[in-house]
Amino acid sequence: MIQRYDDENGAHFGFTDRWGGVSAVPYEQLNLGGAVGDDPDAVRANRKLAAESLGLDPAQVVWMNQVHGRDVAVVDGPWGSDAEIPSVDAVVTARRGLALAVLTADCTPVLLADPVAGVAGAAHAGRPGMLAGVVPSAVEAMVALGADPSRIHAWTGPAVCGKCYEVPEKMRAEAAAIEPACWAETSWGTPAVDVSAGVHAQLAALGVRTRSQSPVCTRESGDHFSYRRDRTTGRLAGYVWLDG
């Protein structure tokens, strides 16, 4: 099942779960990640199913080669069939109707849209990317295309929550020194990092007032892929696009 959210001003956001696809165990069923060991034909079929369920042309969806960094690509169409997909963790566009996609399996998917300016963005914010500033980089790139942070609607999708993302104490201290809002503690009382909280704090500091957050923790939800829980697993996707 895909959760879809439609803004009254023509912005659209979608987040997948793991069901409704054709991939076999351990990628069952709707794995959308092409670099996790799944059958490429199954991934292509799943991407087609997911796009069409959202009313999108699968050929008009822009994917990324995600590397846990902060680099952003500005796009005005899908990558060509022979093009090398760049290693970036955010894409932004001023082309209405073009869908941007981000893959996750515990990291925080960040979808951004300014319907007035006709600018959209998608970012992959794991702990390294959040701390490196991938979300501020994406917003900066959107502003360069005419977006206004005060008009941007931001959605963060299913991700591992702060009560489940256990890390060493030194790692938590280092992360919190960069983004204090990400300091967290697991439900069993050990050090943790809350990436989604860090992302929302960054968005607020940038002037993004309209922010929505999925209540789903991927590690806790059997309906979602989780790398921390299962290691070998599929990938979820978040999609954002604007009415043409």
From TrEMBL:
One of its GO terms (molecular function) is oxidoreductase activity. It comes from the Bacteria. Its cofactor is Zn(2+); Cu(2+). Keywords: Copper, Hydrolase, Metal-binding, Oxidoreductase, Transferase, Zinc. InterPro entries: Cu_polyphenol_OxRdtase (IPR003730), Cu_polyphenol_OxRdtase_sf (IPR038371), Cytotoxic_necrot_fac-like_cat (IPR011324). It catalyses: adenosine + phosphate = alpha-D-ribose 1-phosphate + adenine; inosine + phosphate = alpha-D-ribose 1-phosphate + hypoxanthine; S-methyl-5'-thioadenosine + phosphate = 5-(methylsulfanyl)-alpha-D-ribose 1-phosphate + adenine; adenosine + H2O + H(+) = inosine + NH4(+). Pfam families: Cu-oxidase_4. NCBIfam families: peptidoglycan editing factor PgeF. Homodimer. Belongs to the purine nucleoside phosphorylase YfiH/LACC1 family. Purine nucleoside enzyme that catalyzes the phosphorolysis of adenosine and inosine nucleosides, yielding D-ribose 1-phosphate and the respective free bases, adenine and hypoxanthine. Also catalyzes the phosphorolysis of S-methyl-5'-thioadenosine into adenine and S-methyl-5-thio-alpha-D-ribose 1-phosphate. Also has adenosine deaminase activity. This is Purine nucleoside phosphorylase.
